Amino acid sequence: VAELQEELEYFSVLRDSYRTLLEEELAKHGDDAYITINRFEDCRDEAFYWQDSDTEYIKSYLDDNCYL
């Protein structure tokens, strides 16, 4: 269980760092690329939603079905 928690924390930190880098890159383009940026941000937000949903499902499954 501790190993899984460490993996989840590593994944979360990695995802947050990439999110920050991506936001910084998008900000460099300013108003010139606002349509593309808005579409991309919508796509990114949906991907993060599904990642979070999957993570919560896995955690719930482990809590309910794994007797450690």
Give an account of the 3D structure:
This protein starts with a helix and ends with a helix. It is mostly helical and 68 residues long. Helix content is 88%, strand content 0%. The model has no long low-confidence stretch (mean pLDDT 85). The protein has one domain (2-65). It has helices at residues 2-29, 34-65.
Average pLDDT for all residues: 85
Tertiary shape = elongated
Query: What pattern of helices and strands is seen along the backbone?
Result: HH
Biggest sheet record = none
In angstroms, what is the radius of gyration? 16 Å
Helix content: over 70%
Number of domains: 1
Beta fraction of the residues? under 5%
User: Which stretches of 5+ consecutive residues score pLDDT under 50?
Assistant: none
**Cα end-to-end separation:** 8 Å
Number of strands: 0
Structural class: mainly alpha
Number of helices: 2
Quick structural gist:
With about 70 residues, this protein is mostly helical.
Which terms would index this structure?
single chain; 68 residues; 2 helices; 88% helix
Task: Give the helices and strands, then pairings.
Blueprint: H1 2-29, H2 34-65
